[in-house]
Amino acid sequence: MRLSPLNQIFERPGPIVTAYLEPGVADATSETSVDLRWRALAEQLVAEGADEPTVDAAGKAVNGQPPGRTAAEGMVVVAAGGEVLFTDSLHGPVGGDHASWAPLPHLAAYVRANADTRRYGVVVVDSSGADFVVRGAPTSGHGESGRGDEGHAQVRGEQRPLHKVRGAGLSNRRMQNAVEETADRNAKLVADNIVRLVESARLSSVLLVGAVEARSRVVHHLPHGVQDLVRTSDRAGSGDVSAEAESALDDAVAEIERLIQDNLVERLRGRMSAGTGVEGAADVLQALRQGAVDTLLLTEEDPGNGTAPEASRRKIAIGTGAAELASDAAELRRLFTAGGTADSDVSISEEALDEALIRAGAASDAVAEVVSAEAGLRDGVGALLRFAPAEQA
Asked: Where is this region: Disordered (predicted)?
């Protein structure tokens, strides 16, 4: 996820309301359920000191959505000064309903839930054509509610001749050649549609399933750049998109995500020796202070309860500027005041590590990626850098 679209929210003076409604299941009680859930959050916010116009504005944003969609997809809303600054649906758990009234918007849970903006396609191919399914995150961008709807399409080429006949006679060989040519033209048609789909739907990967021969023909007609995005599977050879192919896509998406995460961690480890990769809070903070972070790596939420890792919730010191962040107040004063003394007069507050990292990353046009806890990032954070940061005394 590119963080820069969030920067305008961070630039708004606080305090700010951030409220999350956990995604779940829509049913006949959704309207009542969403209303009651919001009322509980609103009462909490007022008790914490949030002004009623801002809480009311956030409430109108929640209640202005179809309750079934809010119940199913969840929602984040950010508001300040009596107006809504940002809303979006969620693509994953956020640790339950929760809200904050704080100097900064709390968007770490949103970023973790919505960091995967990739889309995937499955193509079930046979000699006559193919069926297509697209799944994944929305392509509309930040702040526009709604999930990425699945898209279904079908492409059919020439239907005759497609069946070979037995025998070695001249007429039979001609028929076999005609079948081969028809199947090849149909494969070219499917390949052309895959290329268009990759471009129009901005697919990150394509799973190609069906008969081995049909798959091979299609891959042969794909340009090398698209071939790199294609993975094949022997499952779903029947052409049933809605059953076996969907299951195969689920498996493929999980495998793709694992490969992407492994690649990110491998790149990080490989670049650390060159100084363009760092892990741990202290080194990531230093890189963000200098605008060196290209890709911010956050450890995923706990799959059991959707909460952020404990290491990411530790408090650090922040100033008024996005790059003003340090492990503690004394370090922040030393780095960002003229005198550099521990008792220098500077505006300092405390914020959770991951919230401060996201604010700084948004200001410096960084991208956020979420990696598995199995990666073992120190303090739960790492970064791929644009350049090696200078040492700071």
From this structure: 135-160
Burial of 67 (0-12, 13-18, 19+ CB in 10 A): middle
Say if 119-261 and 273-385 have the same CATH topology: no
Instruction: Please state which of the ranges 106-110, 157-161, 181-185 shows the lowest mean pLDDT.
Output: 157-161
Cα–Cα dist 278/269, whole Å: 8
Assigned CATH for 4-114: 3.30.960.10
Mean pLDDT for the stretch of residues 199-226: 87
Angle between helices 353-363 and 281-289 (to 10 degrees): 30
CA 274 to chain centre: 28
Residue 38 has pLDDT above 70, yes or no: yes
Domain boundaries, the chain: 4-114, 119-261, 273-385
Between helix 52-63 and helix 30-47 the angle, nearest 10°, is: 160
Average pLDDT of 323-337? 91
Nearest to 238 by CA among 247, 230, 229: 247
Torsion angle (degrees, nearest 10) of CA 144, 365, 288, 117: 50
Question: What average pLDDT score do residues 8-18 get?
Answer: 93
Q: Which CATH class is domain 119-261?
A: alpha beta
* Domain range 273-385, CATH class: alpha beta
What is the distance between the alpha carbons of residues 156 and 93, in angstroms, rounded to a whole number?
A: 40
Residue 181's pLDDT band (cuts 50, 70, 90): confident
DSSP structure string for 11-64:
TS-S-EEEEEE------TTHHHHHHHHHHHHHHHHHHTT--HHHHHHHHHHHHT
Q: What is the pLDDT of residues 147-170, one digit of tens each?
A: 344 566 677 776 554 444 444 444
